[in-house]
């Protein structure tokens, strides 16, 4: 199958096995027991289950689904960029860049970046305090 469909078949087999054993996997409480289940139980499948898995893999067409997810991802990224308002630090940095259009020396750029960095750190600390 790998020679026929390439490395995509590995993902298809994994999806098929995880999908067909989903109820059993969801019964486990943590990742360690899930990994043990996958390592110990799935390799001991019977002939009927193996044939069922192979048939599912041949019937599975994930290219369309992946393309749909890719389009949805790009749309969500664009919406996120368009809808995210500038925070105070970004707003001030943008204002400074607009006002001061003269080229900066390396030292000036370094100072500007250090100021921005310190204000972002302060903002992060403030947000952490609010969470606690």
TrEMBL record:
InterPro entries, per database record: Rab-GAP_TBC_sf, Rab_GAP_TBC_domain
Domain of life per record: Eukaryota
Protein name per Swiss-Prot or TrEMBL: TBC1 domain family member 1-like
Organism of derivation: Galeopterus variegatus (Malayan flying lemur)
Classification lineage: Eukaryota, Metazoa, Chordata, Craniata, Vertebrata
